[in-house]
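Quick one, tokens below. Sequence please?
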């Protein structure tokens, strides 16, 4: 079986490539980084180190590299033969690789109608569908019909922390032991790819929200409160006696919201929360609070990790005390090297915190949630 993996970066090699290798696929990494491609072809293998105290290693073998910018004919030939295509290139690059995929599919349709699945493993919602729309732009009406009939673009949610890293060996990659790869099976063509580590589901949305409102909400909560307490790294922040109960409380609140929205089993979800917090405690993959807290305006968005679950809880008649504290801490994030933080503080300084919540979170100043956040904001200021 042949798998093409667009993107030979740390996620492509350390996460997707590892699972494809374990499922006995012959893997071709497609990338524009000539150094990586050259090394892959020279060695045919690479090492993954698990970022834990034991530092266990996994050797991935049977891999080849293709320069997708220079060897387009080879890429097209491989798309004709492929049993599976995956991507880990970053959301903005999907549009760039789409014409190449379309060229390969044009040739493939001339040779066979063997089903093929293309899974975008990106940190975004609806990545595979976006890629499909971009691929369609390069196809004729007849080819579009074949695409819809024989090529699946199942959406996926991926979660694995790959820390910032440098190694003497350019192919070596460190990843956390935990990972999650959830694929929506409704758009799969043919049989489900037999890859241990993929969870197939009918509806991806609950899993996307579970990740967003546990991992991302938790990470942001620890970062903003950690910054408030002058703590440098996430692993230290989650162990702080001031931060920890608010973090646990915020995730209990989002857990309540998720259970009420999607009927998650509460005891199973608590295990998931505990696992996520233990990931934050891992010194091997820890990050600076200023990096995790960056872009506070985006993170205070009406549909983002802090405000949306808080609003939903208010609709359920429950006061999100801890989430409101996390939002208040975000309003106090004044890191001078973050452009959004500077803008946020300027608005608060000239118009007030309520005006900032109205502008960035679409919360009316008379909204009970606004009042709760401002109450927590004043409490934090007194603690400074």
């Amino acid at each position: 079986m042949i798998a093409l993996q667009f993107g030979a970066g740390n996620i492509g090699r350390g996460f997707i490539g590892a699972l494809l290798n374990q499922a006995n696929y012959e893997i071709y990494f497609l990338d524009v980084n000539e150094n990586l491609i050259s090394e892959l072809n020279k060695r045919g293998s690479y090492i993954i180190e698990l970022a834990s105290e034991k530092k266990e290693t996994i050797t991935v073998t049977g891999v080849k590299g293709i320069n997708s910018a220079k060897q387009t004919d080879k890429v097209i030939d491989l798309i004709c033969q492929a049993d599976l295509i995956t991507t880990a290139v970053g959301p903005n690059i999907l549009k760039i690789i789409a014409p190449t995929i379309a060229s390969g599919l044009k040739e493939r349709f001339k040779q066979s109608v063997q089903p093929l699945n293309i899974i975008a493993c990106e940190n975004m919602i609806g990545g595979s569908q976006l890629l499909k729309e971009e691929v369609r732009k390069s196809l004729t009406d007849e080819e579009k019909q074949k695409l819809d009939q024989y090529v699946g673009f199942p959406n996926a949610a991926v979660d694995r922390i790959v820390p910032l890293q440098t190694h003497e060996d350019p192919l070596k990659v460190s990843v956390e032991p935990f990972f999650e790869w959830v694929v929506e099976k409704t758009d799969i063509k043919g049989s489900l790819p037999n890859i241990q580590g993929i969870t197939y589901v009918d509806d991806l949305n609950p899993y996307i929200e579970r990740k967003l409102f546990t991992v991302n909400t938790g990470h942001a909560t620890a970062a903003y409160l950690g910054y408030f307490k002058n703590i440098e790294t996430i692993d230290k922040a989650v162990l702080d006696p001031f931060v920890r109960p608010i973090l646990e409380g915020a995730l209990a609140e989002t857990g309540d919201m998720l259970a009420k929205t999607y009927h998650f089993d509460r005891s199973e979800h608590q295990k998931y929360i505990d696992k996520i917090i233990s990931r934050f405690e891992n010194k091997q993959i820890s990050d600076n609070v200023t990096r995790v807290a960056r872009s506070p305006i985006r993170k205070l968005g009406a549909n983002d990790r802090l405000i949306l679950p808080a609003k939903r809880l208010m609709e359920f008649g429950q006061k999100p005390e801890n989430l409101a504290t996390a939002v208040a801490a975000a309003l106090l994030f004044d890191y001078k090297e973050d452009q959004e933080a500077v803008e946020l503080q300027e608005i608060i300084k000239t118009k007030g915190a309520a005006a900032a919540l109205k502008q960035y979170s679409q919360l009316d100043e008379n909204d009970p949630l606004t009042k709760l956040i401002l109450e927590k904001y004043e409490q934090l200021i007194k603690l400074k």
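The chain is about 50% helix and 15% strand. Residues 2-203 form a domain with the Rossmann fold fold (CATH 3.40.50.720).
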